[in-house]
Design brief:
Elements lengths: L8 H12 L1 H17 L4 H4 L5 H20 L8 H11 L3 H10 L1
Helix pairs in contact: 1-2, 1-6, 2-4, 4-6
């Protein structure tokens, strides 16, 4: 199942919120630029495990996930709502979000 051309609602929603606020959008684009610059020197690229494009995408997806996770106001709580938030964030296809920022 997809939503608005994205793998699911959760992925669409995260990308929407990351790209609709100018400051957040610029930050995510800066992360994409950093990952592009770092990818050629990534151990997995130099060892021939990944092509540079994959390393860029995987680096960025990890950083975007960390960024959103750090913004979660419920991350330090042990509540039903915190569990639900974590479940929803686990459904996000971070690679798709990363690809969207790398294509822009």
């Amino acid at each position: 199942m997809g939503y608005q051309g994205w793998p699911n609602y959760e992925t669409w929603c995260v990308h929407l919120w990351l790209s609709n606020d100018e400051g957040t959008y610029r930050y995510c684009r800066a992360l994409a630029a950093e990952c592009r610059a770092e990818a050629p020197n990534d151990q997995r690229v130099t060892d021939g495990v990944w092509p540079e494009a994959d390393a860029t995408k995987f680096l960025l997806s990890d950083r975007l996930k960390e960024f959103v996770t750090d913004l979660n106001p419920l991350s330090d709580e042990a509540t039903m709502f915190a569990d639900l938030m974590n479940a929803v964030l686990s459904e996000v296809d971070w690679h798709e979000v990363a690809e969207a920022f790398l294509e822009e």
